[in-house]
Fold this protein.
Amino acid sequence: MPGIAEKNAPPALIVVFLRGAVDGLNVVVPHGDPDYYARRPNIAIGPPHSPAPPLPIPIAAGGLGGSGLSALDLDGYFGLHPSLELLKPLFDEGELALLQATGTPFADRSHFSSQRRMEVGGTATTHATGGWLGRYLNATARREQPAVRAVSVGLALDQSLAGADSAIAVANSASYRLSSGSEEQWRIGIPPLYQGHGERLETVPRSIFSALDLFASNPPDQIPRDPGASYPRGALGERLRQAGQYLKADIGIEAITLNSDGWDHHVNENSALPPLLSALAQGLTALRTDLAEHWSRSVLVLMSEFGRTVGENASGGTDHGRANMMMVLGGAVNGGRVYGHWPGLASPQLDPTGDLAITTDYRTVLAE
């Protein structure tokens, strides 16, 4: 029955893309690296249990100063931003793994091309077809499979799912239906539009109506939320709530992609970052509660297109950099650790661009 994890239910992957390039150094804080504080005298997150500075240090004309915040210690060297306090128990219980100094080896400070490159998962010399997750779905396709194996929660299909016949974009499952005319007319009128354009396009009408039939017979929007799951208000909370419904409906969905916007903090980072992180932590822990038995078969991956500069700028923020952090959480995750080789923040240890060096290719994480 819907809402109870089936014994043979497939593993489920949820990919959350933090668009805008989150500042991984202030999320997974290297409080054991003295150069972190030397390069960020005003915006660094303080060591665990460190007292707030008596007075902020003014910078530029904004009067911004030290964060006055203390990291939540993870392993004696790294800590979490205090606004992620709700995630600390997941780390302690081994359900959250963190990775530092990850990224793509292809230097690019453009949001758009970097996001696309990460979602494609290609190389510098190979033009991959579709997205990395779309290729996985096609490679594991079987003769008898659900009409929908993957959903992008939004108006458009995320690039990572591009090329998969079993992937659809749904902004809201409650309104996923034909909005005008009779369904019979649509079923008659749409297929001829795709005929004569190749076998791949001719399958589109079948996919459309198969998805409509699936949602009509097993409506995900009718799956109740667990009373203990408190999703944050806003777009991210709603997208995570819908992701939970798709998995609890047991309709064969194996991959879900969704986005969180607003992570490009060139100014006032100490003011902008905490509420976003708080909402993220609340949403992820709410999803964990909501999924209940399904949590054990679920893995969430959080990624962003690139990191931020090691040094702060004059506006109390950071600019486009290179390496970043990633998060992986779920019931079967080997967590409770900060993975990856930490290169250090001293000048000789930095990337040639002067940013945090990449020591783990993000595709290594996605491949696993």
Notes: The longest strand covers residues 96-103.
